[in-house]
Amino acid sequence: MAGAGLIDDYVAALDRRLRGPGPVKDDLLAEARDSLHDAAAAHRDRGLGEEDAQRRAVAEFGPVTAVAREYQGLLGLAHGARTLRSMLLVVPLVSVLWELNRRFWIGAWDDFAVPPPGWYLAVARFTDASAWVVAGAAVLALLVGRRLARTSVSTPALARLAGAVAVGAVGVSLLGHVAILAATAYVDAARLVVSPPVAVATAASLAVALRLAVLARRCLVFSSA
User: Fold this and answer.
1) CB of 165 within 8 A of CB of 173?
2) In the chain, where does DSSP find H-type helix?
C-alpha cells in the first residue's frame, strides 16, 4: 500500500461498509477525508514524512469498524427522519385527495342502496383516521427523537426508534387501505369499479403506502447494518 494512498484506502474501506442515503453518505465520507488530510498535514508540519503522517492520521481517526458503526447510525437516523417527514406530509395529502375523489364520485360511506352494517362504518372510520394516526406518530417520533438526541441516547438507538415508528405507522396505513378494500368488496363489490377516478386514486394511494413501506423497512436495515 503506497503511502500516498493510505487515506484513500481508509475512506474506500469506510465507503464499502456504509449503507444509506447517498448525499448524506457522501458528506460523511468527505468529512472523514478532509479530517484525515488535515491531521496528516499537521503531522507533516511536525516533521513526519508523507506515509508516516498519513499512517498516524489514520490511526488517530480510529478503526474502520468503529467509525463505520458511528457513521452508519448517522445514516440510519438521517434516512429515518426523512422517512418520517415524508409520512407526515404525503400520507395526509394522499388521504385527503382520495377522500375528495370518493365523496365526489361515490358519496358517503353509508350512502349504499342497502345500508351497510355497523362494522363496515367502523372500518371506514378507521381508514379515514389512519392517515392522521400516521401523521401524529411521525410528528411525535420527530419531536421525541430531537429531544433524545440531546441526551446520552446513542445515534444507532435513535435510528432504530425512527425505523420502528416508521414501520408501525406504515403498517397502520396499509391496514386501513386493505381493510376498506376488503370490506367494500364484501358489502358491495361494484363500488370498487363504479368510478375510474376513485380506482385510480385508490391505486395511487396504495402505491404511495407501499413505497413508504419500502422506505420504512430500509430504516431498520440501515440502523442495524
Assistant:
1) no
2) 6-17, 22-45, 50-61, 64-105, 118-148, 155-188, 196-224
> What is the full DSSP assignment across 110-166?
T--SSPPPHHHHHHHHHHHHHHHHHHHHHHHHHHHHHHHTTTT--HHHHHHHHHHHH
Which are the contacts of 65, defined by CB distance < 8 A and separation ≥ 6?
Answer: 17
219: cell is 430504516
**pTM for this structure?**
0.78
Give the whole-angstrom CA distance, residue 151 versus residue 204: 40
pLDDT in tens, 82-122: 999 999 998 888 888 877 877 776 666 555 566 778 888 89
3-class DSSP assignment, residue 92: helix
Q: Please state, as a whole number, how many other Cβ atoms lie within 10 Å of the Cβ of residue 133.
A: 16
Query: Could you give the C-alpha distances from 151 to 60, 145, 148, 155, 161, in angstroms and in order?
Result: 26, 10, 5, 10, 15
Whole-angstrom distance, CA of residue 70 vs CA of residue 198: 46
Given this model, what pLDDT does residue 35 score?
94
Kindly report, residue by residue over 176-209, the tens digit of the pLDDT. 888 888 888 888 777 776 667 777 877 888 888 8
Q: What whole-number distance in Å separates Cα of residue 124 and Cα of residue 192?
A: 14
- The gap from C-alpha 56 to its chain's centroid, in whole angstroms, comes to 37
> Angle at Cα 200 formed by Cα 196 and Cα 204, nearest 5°?
170
Cell output for 121: 362504518
